[in-house]
Write a structure and sequence with these properties.
Elements lengths: L3 H16 L3 E11 L6 E11 L2 E11 L12 H10 L10 E5 L9 E5 L12 H4 L2 H19 L3 H4 L10 H16 L5 H12 L9 E3 L8 E4 L2 E5 L6 E3 L1 H11 L14 H12 L6 H24 L6 H20 L15 H13 L3
Antiparallel strand pairs: 1-2, 2-3, 3-5, 4-5, 6-9, 7-8
Length: 366
């Protein structure tokens, strides 16, 4: 990324070409969103002048992360296409405005989307919200309602059916994450390989209803205004396929620190029952789908750790990810009732690499 002044200048020039009849385009309030581990995001306000006077629009710029990244292959254009297809549906996704796919403007491809209002509650829940159990209950219901809305999108009418018929979704997911596991492995990974083999051995027939799948339907990807979902973010892993994959992912993230971990929230069983009623789809083989998504989580954490270990990133959060891989793998094995516990292999970051980064960070000027 370039420095702030150069970024503003380059963005303003490019945005003028997108706005058509705009004059005196400028960028105000350029800031970086310091959340997540994959794509980088900038928040800013576009200000321009037309015959009608000065106009303003708050937007978010989503950049393709440096390669190699946490989620490879990273298809920014596909995300843009999916968000465009959701315009006019009841899904509360940000509107995608413009795509810059060459990387010539900011050094990496990016797209611009509208900035939606709302607060995200991940890891920290404010005391005033914690003191309002009825509101937390309604927020958890609204979250489930929005997941169901995603799964009710008309694929043909929206154009999303062009992404594929989705019936091989589970096969593709297993192939993708096993490929990533082996791509970054420093040596044999018996526990993860055992988990993968058991998932394949017990793989169910896919859900008869094929839908849009968000791919990362965790509570931290939903924003709220008051008690209602106002926005759904992070469509990096969206696809057409088996909606029960989203339910499995939501189940394993339901009790992570957020509004859904509070006692007044819907329980996981209540969440699934509400979703079934809203969609008319039965959530079967829940243990297998939870195990599938826990495997996916373990592999993403492994990739993060190995990116750090190989020197592609100095983000110590990625090193912490790797430390959790054994725990997450064992959770999935328990879901599948695998009694033995194979060795995990080299899944954690080398201690000397962590020490090197910490020492360099401590010496860096503040």
């Amino acid at each position: 990324m370039r420095d702030g002044d150069e970024t503003r200048t380059r963005l303003a020039a490019w945005l003028r070409s997108q706005l058509g009849d705009a004059d005196e385009v400028r960028v105000e309030g350029l800031g970086r969103v310091e959340v997540g581990h994959s794509a980088e995001m900038l928040v800013l306000t576009i200000v321009w002048r037309t015959r009608r006077g000065e106009e303003r629009r708050d937007v978010v710029v989503r950049l393709r992360p440096p390669s190699p990244g946490l989620l490879e292959p990273y298809d920014l254009a596909r995300q843009f296409r999916i968000l465009r297809a959701l315009e006019g549906t009841a899904v509360k996704a940000p509107r995608a405005l413009w795509l810059e796919s060459s990387g010539d403007v900011l050094g990496r491809p990016f797209f611009v989307m509208e900035r939606l209002d709302g607060d995200v509650y991940e890891r920290v829940v404010p005391a005033e919200l914690d003191a309002d159990p009825a509101r937390i209950r309604r927020m958890s219901e609204s979250l489930v309602d929005q997941i169901a809305t995603i799964h009710r999108v008309d694929l043909a009418a929206s154009g999303l059916a062009d992404l594929g018929d989705g019936r091989d979704y589970l096969d593709r997911e297993l192939a993708r994450w096993s490929g990533e596991m082996r791509r970054v492995a420093r040596g044999p990974l018996p526990a993860l390989e055992r988990l993968l083999a058991t998932l394949r051995e017990h793989q169910p027939e896919p859900c008869p209803t094929i839908t849009l799948v968000h791919g990362d339907a965790k509570p931290g990807n939903f924003a709220f205004v008051g008690s209602e979902v106002s926005a759904v973010f992070d469509w990096e892993m969206a696809d057409v396929g088996d909606p029960l994959a989203d339910i499995g992912w939501a189940e394993i993230t339901w009790r992570t620190p957020s509004i859904t971990s509070r006692p007044s929230s819907l329980s996981a069983d209540e969440f699934v029952a509400r979703w079934e009623e809203l969609t008319g789809i039965r959530a079967r083989q829940r243990e297998w789908y939870r195990a599938l998504q826990t495997y996916k989580m373990a592999v993403i954490m492994l990739v993060g750790g190995m990116l750090f270990d190989a020197g592609h990133s100095d983000d110590l959060r990625l090193a912490e990810m790797a430390r959790v891989v054994p725990l997450v793998t064992e959770l999935a094995l328990r879901e599948l009732r695998v009694a033995d516990r194979p060795d995990h292999g080299p899944v954690e970051v080398r201690a000397e690499r962590v020490k090197e980064v910490k020492q360099r960070t401590a010496r860096a000027p503040r």
